[in-house]
């Protein structure tokens, strides 16, 4: 059986995969009194559109893991998936929330009384922490809030290392405005959801995506809906790195602050067109300094030579 599974068969299987979409089932709908809405039953239907390159690569990775697991246990001799090349994926989606847009966003959050989203945006931009590192944080992780050098402790980040993120004055003020300040264990506690039955409750909020897009629409900026290139919550982390790059902060200092690797910082540099101009101006300034220094040295040597030469006019005593 193992001999029948060839790399060509795996490649043919991946190419045959098609996208699916959810369609409602006629006649199957039920009103949910707790959620106060009607739930319509849906089913998956295969379409004619092929899977994207990233989806195919994900399936390839899953199949490779399965075969590698069985190779270690002697059920297969080789992993046929290793001979199948990954498909080339399109360039990643990069966008940046501009400074004025960010200020409008925070102002609208405060106007609406959404201090959770306002605080999250401030923390995300100033600490450059990922969403998965911020949302689970407890008040016990906040240290020296009333003293010097307040910081937020993250026991384990995505890189598997702990991180103490210093808090700015703006972040401290936003934290004190949170509804959970002094009332809850978590910075962003979860709210009861009528769609879940029983006593199941998530201890902390998992996402602010809907609220984020709603505020974006209210202030008239791109909301990042499917098929629309616009700001996303993760762009706040991009915003932090891009601002530091725009100010000329060295890459190694930015990487220490954000947790990015040096190569990962390259993706932000094209978002600021003035970075190239700043680079040219820095080189130009150095050239001017070097040229000025060279001119001064030339002038000094000329003066020294002239002083050593005999004067064409006889001195009169």
Structure description:
There is one protein chain. This protein has helices at 7-16, 53-72, 99-112, 115-127, 131-134, 169-176, 209-218, 235-246, 251-258, 266-269, 274-308; strands spanning 18-32, 37-50, 142-143, 151-154, 163-166. β1 and β2 (37-50) form a beta hairpin. The termini are far apart. It is an alpha+beta fold.
Which key features would you list for this structure?
5 strands, 12% strand, 3-stranded antiparallel sheet, alpha+beta, 317 residues, hpI Integrase, Chain A, 2 domains, two-stranded antiparallel ribbon, disordered C terminus
Query: Uncertain segments of ≥5 residues (pLDDT<50)?
Result: 312-317
What is the C-alpha radius of gyration, as a whole number of Å? 30 Å
The appropriate CATH architecture of the largest domain is: Orthogonal Bundle
**What percentage of the residues does DSSP assign to strands (E)?**
5-15%
Q: Identify the CATH class of the largest domain.
A: Mainly Alpha
For the record, the count of structural domains works out to 2
- Secondary structure: number of strands: 5
